[in-house]
Specification:
The protein is built from five helices and five strands; from the N terminus they run βαβαβαββαα. By secondary structure, the chain is α/β, with parallel strands linked by helices.
Length: 131
């Protein structure tokens, strides 16, 4: 049995965090939730999540700076980062992000993409959570 992967959601919008948390937990993923970039950086170093879903516009440290800092640190550079924003973000891929998500979010599509990128939990049961 494959162990559950961990996703860190970082967004200062509480509703976005709760929706994503519900969808990802329903798919069998471990989920950590934070509301600012500085706390997220500490959590990445401590918990080593498999994926960070970070909003670009946040207090303390914006998502693009968080991504750059994660990718510049030899201890965390293997962590996957996806950036989210209501505005286009040119150059998101040069920051080291694996993909960019435009808001408003389609949380079911995002959940399916997270499972695809992480390689599990084992479909089809996990995908049933998005039906």
């Amino acid at each position: 049995m494959k162990s559950a992967r961990t996703v860190l959601i970082v967004d200062d919008d509480t509703l976005t965090v709760r929706l994503l948390e519900f969808v990802l937990r329903s798919a069998g993923l471990n989920v950590l939730c934070l509301h600012d970039g500085r706390s997220a950086l500490d959590a990445v170093r401590e918990h080593r999540p498999d994926l960070v879903l970070a909003d670009v516009a946040m207090p303390e440290m914006c998502g693009d700076e968080l991504c750059r800092t994660i990718k510049d640190d030899p201890l965390t550079r293997q962590t996957l980062v996806a950036l989210m924003s209501s505005d286009e973000l040119a150059g998101w891929d040069t920051l080291g992000a694996v993909w960019f998500v435009r808001k408003p979010l389609d949380v079911c599509a995002l959940g399916a993409r997270v499972l695809e990128v992480l390689g599990g939990p084992d479909p089809p049961d996990a995908m049933a959570a998005f039906a």
